[in-house]
Amino acid sequence: MSQPLLFSGNSNPELANEIAKRLKLPGGVGKAIVTKFKNEETRIEIGENVRGSEAFVVQSICKSPNGNGVNDALMELLLMIDALRRASAARITAVIPYYGYAKQDKKTKGREPISAKVVANLLKVTGAERIVTMDLHAAQIQGFFDQPVDNLMAMPVLCNYLKKEGLCDDKIVIVSPDAGGVHRAELFAKRLNSSLAIVFKRRPEPDVSEVTDIVGDVEGKVAVVVDDMISTGGTLAKAAEAIRARGATKVYTVATHGIFAGEAIEVLENSAIERVVITNTIPLENALLHPKFVQLPIAQTFADAILRITTNRSVSELFGDEITPAANGSVATPEPVVVQ
Ligand code: R5P
Asked: Of 112, 132, 152, which closes a domain?
């Protein structure tokens, strides 16, 4: 198969460009019209020959910088895959840095949908033969697919940043903000050689969280709370308050996906959190105006994974203790660019 082709919808074009640059794709991101008809329906037209090619579509399922909503991003992704399949691409991979609808991965009460499964079904019927994503809200979502899923981790990039800031070893305690995040927090604690604490939270209603207890010692330590995503900011703000009340000297937070829904920026800005570190799986504008927020670039991790997929090399190798350089000499742990 010839060189891969990479296409992008409107939800995170900057990340797609960055991935194409790191893959050294001669034409950069492939030509495509991704817009709307006057009646608001999504309009897609692939602008170059894709016959027999290995095609990647990069699209986070989130709000777009052009103002389009989450559902527009999903529809763009599905229609681009359909267009590529009908144009005879040999293999199509959906690269979904942030997999939206992931929190709706089970019925919590009667008469609710399992929306994360619906998204998986749609990707299947449109023709995505492989999924590349990052830090799925629940790893079990991989089971919603029959196709291969590469669930990448932002952990090496986030840990590198923390180490560079001197936030490692016995100076810090890694904290999971809920029971569901314990495995992720354990991986961070192991890599940073730190202890672990767990916050227990309950959700009395959607988008509202309350801390019920903390297990583990945070007193006199800098706490680093690790989460997969920040939506309303409530989980992290409440956790930080409770951790400080238990005697932690400072609270930092790191998360892969910065959704920042509603008043999240203000909630976090006014919280006990020292710094909010996220990656650019989701584009951010306003958050970066605030000195408390740091965004780390994640394109290299996706570029490395894509390169390994196209050359049939191991992807999981990227996340072992020893990072093996990819064929182009790059590694998945680039120097972070701190945008403040
Ligand atoms: C929950 O299980 C997730 O891992 C996050 O903690 C949660 O989605 C964050 O949501 P919010 O910022 O709205 O509290």
From this structure: 152
What gap in Å lies between CA 239 and CA 241, rounded to an integer?
5
Residue with tokens 């703000």: 237
pLDDT of residue 287: 61
Q: Give the pLDDT confidence score for residue 340 in this predicted structure.
A: 28
Structure confidence at residue 47 (pLDDT)? 98
Question: Residue 232 sits in a domain of what CATH number?
Answer: 3.40.50.2020
Distance 247 CA to ligand 1 centre (A): 23
Same-domain pairing of 27 and 129: yes
Cβ 227 under 6 angstroms from ligand 1: yes
Range of the domain at 188: 155-296
- pLDDT at 321 (0 to 100): 52
Tell me the HSE value of 177 on the side-chain side, using a 13 A CA sphere.
Answer: 24
List the catalytic residues: 201
Q: Where are the beta strands (DSSP E) in 40-182?
A: 42-46, 54-58, 91-96, 130-134, 149-152, 172-176
81 has a pLDDT exceeding 70: yes
pTM of the model: 0.93
Whether 331 has a pLDDT exceeding 70, the answer reads no
Tell me which residue has its CA closest to atom 14 in ligand 1. 235
Q: How many structural domains compose the chain? A: 2
Ligand 1 atom closest to Cα of 207? 13
Please, is 28 exposed, middle or buried when counting C-beta atoms within 10 Å of its C-beta (0-12, 13-18, 19+)? middle
Does some domain include residue 332? Answer: no
Q: What is the mean pLDDT of the chain?
A: 93
